[in-house]
């Protein structure tokens, strides 16, 4: 006695379409989170920069922006606009650093918002 088993899948194309749509929605949502936090982080950095201004240039030229590195990768950049910004970040044991402290201050919020996207 031989036994034959046949399995037929229905809706495979629909499932593939739905998976692609979900992935696209996730990428869009991650981009929206980045777009939301870039100006928030820039404002925070400008407000909380620990140095005393001489010309105001270092504070005024702190900037944040979002870049799509690929179809699936989004980056938020927070940077100094003055050449001497690297010295503010690295010299004096980082006493005047603002880039990493700003990132650390917002990581929890960013993570929470991203978790809500994936929930």
Mean pLDDT: 93
* Biggest beta sheet summary: 2 strands, antiparallel
Total number of distinct structural domains: 1
The H-and-E topology, N to C, reads as HHEEHH
Helix segment tally:
4
- Please mark out the parts with pLDDT under 50 across 5 or more consecutive residues, or reply none: none
Envelope shape = rod-shaped
The number of distinct β-strands equals 2
Strand order of the largest sheet: 1-2
- Report the C-alpha radius of gyration, rounded: 23 Å
Task: Describe the SSE topology.
Blueprint: H1 12-48, H2 57-60, E1 63-68, E2 74-79, H3 85-90, H4 99-118
Antiparallel strand pairs: 1-2
Helix pairs in contact: 1-4
Could you explain how this protein is built, in words?
It contains four helices and two strands, in the order ααββαα. With 119 residues, the protein is mainly alpha-helical. It has one domain. Strands 1-2 form a two-stranded antiparallel ribbon. α1 (12-48) packs antiparallel against α4. 13% of the residues are buried. The model has no long low-confidence stretch (mean pLDDT 93).
């Amino acid at each position: 006695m031989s036994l034959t088993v046949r399995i037929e899948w229905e809706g495979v194309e629909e499932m593939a379409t739905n998976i692609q749509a979900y992935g696209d929605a996730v990428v869009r949502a991650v981009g929206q989170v980045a777009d939301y936090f870039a100006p928030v982080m820039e404002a925070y950095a400008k407000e909380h920069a620990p140095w005393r201004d001489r010309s105001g240039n270092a504070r005024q030229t702190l900037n944040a922006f979002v870049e799509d590195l690929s179809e699936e990768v989004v980056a938020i950049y927070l940077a100094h606009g003055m050449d001497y910004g690297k010295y503010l970040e690295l010299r004096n044991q980082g006493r005047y650093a603002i880039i990493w402290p700003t990132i650390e201050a917002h990581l929890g919020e960013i993570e929470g918002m991203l978790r809500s996207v994936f929930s």
